[in-house]
Design goal:
Radius of gyration: 26 Å
Number of strands: 3
Number of helices: 25
Order of helices and strands: HHHHHHHHHHHHHHHHHHHHHHEHEHHE
Distance between the termini: 61 Å
Shape: globular
């Protein structure tokens, strides 16, 4: 009731609040005027006033039922996890804990030694350094993985830690919780040994390792998908399980709030939950769950829709709109790219992965794994084709779940010879664990460097600039621009003016090169050959005018 009254007050005083905000942003009034207005303030405050009022009335009428539902749901979840752990073989517990501990330890090491990437720097500059209000309302680029930005704002307030570690702490935490959640899912889909083997494979994949320490929301999306799918499988057997209902809605809403691309994995989970024997008694509860998910997602996203416009979510400057045949090819390439990148782009590992997935597909051909995988491919291809955009491999990170489980099935099939005792089977599993983590340890760094080779050039470039570097014009958002601004804000306090402007490479490339021939000062001395980079890369074109 208090929240509803506060929202009504804001709606009535919208003009005064707008004037106050305008006075607080000296020199940026034009930008604020395009972003917010008294009408937008009234619209948002009015909506939330009504929402909180209805929520208050509903709580008064059904308060005891809500408390009972939440309590029983949490109890079911707790008992389910406890039963899963207690039923495990002691050797499985030891190996599983070792996998999780080593996974987190390597991620901590990578987080400590790896410089902040350009996308992470963009997140820090726009949605963390500006404060949590910016994270909740600003969607100038799809780089705002909103829920991750909110978490990063919270960890940024922690003392003693470095800025990179505070920024990456949510990913590190999610990496810790994702592995046991994945094991529980894999155990529901198969048996204990398959789940353990799948866990080892999953934690060894490059994309899993990468997004369990980088400050991006893709690891969050995969985490929510794993729990969402686990709940969907439980609901397909009994749609009235309160624990599964709570998990299904909560992870779906938070998945959407992390990134709109969660639409595809959510549809996979929703379709999976529809499989049931008793369909008449099954559909109505699921309809309620889907409705609640839609309403809560709208409540969270309404400020972003209102302030940024729907076009901010339907367009991405970093994505092309290719021809239909090329689009299908790129979509297929992105789906397969989860596999090829997961195995560090090494042909030998990819061949081994295919050889192990093949018997896994045969074993699991009639299981829910195969059905869910087919649904995933169907929804991914159809939605991306309809949108006209192939997206990126990282948006499909959750395909790693199926890759790991199918390979787990394949290895289990090879280990299922009669002459293998339980002890020798666990010894072989331990050997696979050690081997795959050695592969991960050796290949992670060179694979990361191959994808982020320009990152180190960007850091060398920014370090070469003087403290007062004058004016710099970035013709396009680039590694150099973002890393420079991140360094200026978080580290060395370099001063200067940074501008971004639209750039058409086909029209403006020759013009910029002609300017270069006039021998203007483009860079300071450094170990990196910036002139060569300048000529080779028309995406990141720079002109530095050093003040005299």
């Amino acid at each position: 009731m208090v929240l509803s009254g506060a929202c009504f007050t804001i709606a009535l005083r919208a003009n005064a609040i707008y004037d106050y905000a305008l006075n607080r942003v000296e020199g940026n009034q034009d930008a604020l005027t395009g972003f917010i207005s008294p009408v937008k303030i009234q619209y948002l405050a009015g909506f939330y006033a009504v929402f909180f009022l209805l929520l208050f009335i509903f709580t008064l009428k059904r308060g005891q039922s809500i408390i009972t539902f939440v309590h029983s749901s949490l109890q079911q979840i707790k008992n389910g996890i406890a039963h899963q752990i207690n039923s495990l073989h002691p050797a499985t517990k030891i190996i599983g804990v070792a996998v999780i501990v080593l996974h987190v330890a390597i991620n901590l090491h990578n987080a400590a030694i790896t410089p902040i990437t350009n996308d992470e720097a963009f997140t820090y500059i726009n949605y963390v350094e500006r404060g949590i209000i910016a994270a909740l309302t600003l969607y100038n680029e799809p780089n705002n993985h909103i829920f991750y930005s909110v978490l990063a704002n919270l960890t940024d307030a922690l003392p003693y830690l470095s800025t990179p570690m505070k920024l990456r702490l949510p990913s590190l935490a999610i990496g810790f919780f994702t592995l046991p959640a994945f094991f529980i899912l894999a155990a529901k889909l198969s048996r204990e040994r398959v789940a353990l083997l799948s866990l080892i494979i999953f934690s060894s994949l490059y994309l899993t390792a990468k997004y369990h320490f980088l400050a991006r929301g893709y690891g969050l999306m995969m985490f929510f998908f794993i729990i969402n799918l686990t709940a969907a499988y439980a609901l397909s057997g009994n749609s009235r399980k309160s624990g599964a209902q709570l998990l299904f809605v909560a992870t779906a809403v938070l998945g959407f709030y992390t990134h709109p691309a969660y639409l595809i994995p959510f549809l996979v989970c929703a379709a999976t939950s529809l499989f049931s024997v008793n369909r008449k008694a099954h559909y109505l509860p699921l309809f309620y769950l889907l409705s609640i998910t839609a309403i809560l997602t709208l409540v969270l996203y309404l400020p972003l829709f209102t302030l940024n416009g729907l076009s901010a979510f339907t367009s991405n400057s970093g994505l092309e709109k290719p021809e239909p045949l090329l689009l299908l090819k790129q979509i297929g390439g992105n789906i397969s790219g989860v596999f090829t990148q997961g195995f560090y782009d090494l042909p030998a590992l990819q061949i081994a992965g295919i050889c192990l997935m093949s018997p896994g597909l045969i074993v699991a051909r009639r299981s829910t794994v195969a059905i869910t995988l087919l649904l995933s491919i169907l929804f991914t291809v159809s939605i991306l084709y309809a949108s006209g955009s192939p997206m990126f491999i990282r948006n499909l990170l959750w395909f790693s779940v199926f890759i790991a489980v199918l390979i787990g099935f394949g290895i289990d099939a090879l280990l299922s010879f009669r002459y293998l005792t339980a002890r020798s089977s666990h010894l072989l599993t331990t050997g696979i664990f050690i081997l795959l983590f050695l592969v991960r340890t050796v290949n992670h760094r060179p694979t990361f460097n191959s994808y982020y080779h320009r990152l180190f050039q960007a850091y060398a470039f920014t370090e070469a600039l003087p403290q007062d570097f004058g004016e710099m014009y970035s013709e396009h958002t680039s590694d150099y621009y973002t890393i420079l601004k991140y360094n200026a804000i978080s580290k060395n306090g370099k001063t200067g003016k940074l501008y971004r402007s639209n750039f058409d490479s086909e029209k403006d490339y020759d013009r910029v090169l002609n300017i270069k021939k006039l021998k203007q000062n483009y860079h300071r001395e450094s170990t990196f050959r910036y002139e060569k980079e300048y000529e080779d890369d028309y995406i990141s074109l720079w002109k530095i005018i050093v003040e005299k």
